[in-house]
Amino acid sequence: xxxxxxxxxxxxxxxxxxxxxxxxxxxxxxxxxxxxxxxxxxxxxxxxxxxxxxxxxxxxxxxxxxxxxxxxxxxxxxxxxxxxxxxxxxxxxxxxxxxxxxxxxxxxxxxxxxxxxxxxxxxx
Length: 124
Description:
Layout: E1 5-12, E2 15-26, E3 33-36, H1 37-43, E4 49-54, E5 60-72, E6 75-84, E7 91-92, H2 94-99, E8 102-105, E9 110-113
Parallel strand pairs: 2-7, 3-6
Antiparallel strand pairs: 1-2, 1-5, 4-5, 5-6, 8-9
């Protein structure tokens, strides 16, 4: 099985001109994306919360969470991201993929447009 990498522009939602181009490993099994804390600090992104995450070996770690704007091929989406620490990989997770309107084809290992479904109903 191959790995899928993608380069995205990451921006501070409060100062959109503060941006950087980063290379991500696409990990559709991860919920949140991970961006190195040093890159987020350079963009002026501040954490708003902290969460506990369980690693594959069952151990738990705490990481800070902040928000960014992601851009790819003229599309953009806002997403929460984890402030990565030493040893953490730069990952693009499912929430960010969905915010960009993308899904990973697991067989071809390619990003494809996410089918957008909207349910209509009566408002009461």
